[in-house]
Each structure stands twice: as C-alpha cells, then as structure tokens.
C-alpha cells in the first residue's frame, strides 16, 4: 500500500491532532423521526387520549394575531393538564377570521375586537370628536315642508 494514501486515510478518521486516538465508530446522527417517537412515548406515559372530530383550533395571542389549525390532531390529558395540538398551523390576523370566530372570543380578546371595530369604522385613523360637529354645516337646509306633503 502507498504510504501517502495510508497517511491520508488515517487523517480522515482522527478526532484531534497528531497523536490522538482514532474514532472507534462513526457518529450516527439522529433523525427527526426519533424525536417524534420519543415525544409519542412521553405522551403515552402521561395518559394522553386523542379527541376526535375537532375541525379547527384557534390560539389567540396578545398582539391580535391568531394561530389557526384546520383539522388538527388534538390529544389531551386532563390529569396532567396537558393538551397537544398537531397539524398545519397558519398565523392570521383576527379580522381575517372574524365572522365565524366571534363565538370563540373571550373577555381577553375584547380589546382586540374593539380595536378591529374602530379600524373598520374609521379607516383613515380619524376618530369622533370636534370633526364630526363640522359635518352638520355641510348639510343643506330643508326648503319644503315635508310634513304637509306626507299628510295629504
């Protein structure tokens, strides 16, 4: 065997510098499936049961956004106070989900709902006040007597 080739092969398996011990075994990296199996075993130990027939799950955040799961896999262990929601999640704004989500809103989300309603009423950012009093001047005065016409 060639000495250079042998030296090159020896360098490729060293973990440190010259004079260090060679690796006995190549390190095998764990895959994500191993982590998933460990998670499932831990959940099984907690006594988690699958809850069937849940169509959507919404997690409300403080900044007015919602983490929305459609057709998730929901597992719960009430004794361990543990809930597991897995599936495809989307982060959406509260107003994107609004018509169908109102019955899910609690007192914590009331401020976010008020803010959305205010933005819908006044999209330009101007809120009520002295500016509304000036709008009365723009209306034309009544010229005819409409009550007399209605009584005929």
Outline the biggest β-sheet: 3 strands, antiparallel
Reading the helices and strands in chain order gives HHEEEEEEHHHH
- Between the first and last Cα atoms, what is the distance in angstroms? 121 Å
Strand content: 15-25%
Shape, principal axes of CA atoms = elongated
The strands making up the biggest β-sheet line up spatially as 1-4-5
**Could you say which structural class the secondary elements and strand pairing correspond to?**
alpha+beta
- What is the helix content? 25-40%
Highlighted features:
single chain; 152 residues; alpha+beta; 3-stranded antiparallel sheet; 6 helices; elongated
Structural description of this entry:
This protein has a 3-stranded antiparallel β-sheet, with no helix packed on it. Strands 2-3-6 form a 3-stranded antiparallel β-sheet, with no helix packed on it. The protein has 6 helices and 6 strands, in the order H-H-E-E-E-E-E-E-H-H-H-H. The protein has helices at 3-12, 32-46, 98-101, 110-121, 130-134, 146-151; strands spanning 49-51, 56-60, 65-70, 73-77, 82-86, 89-93. With 152 residues, it is α+β, with helices and mostly antiparallel strands. The longest helix has 15 residues, at 32-46.
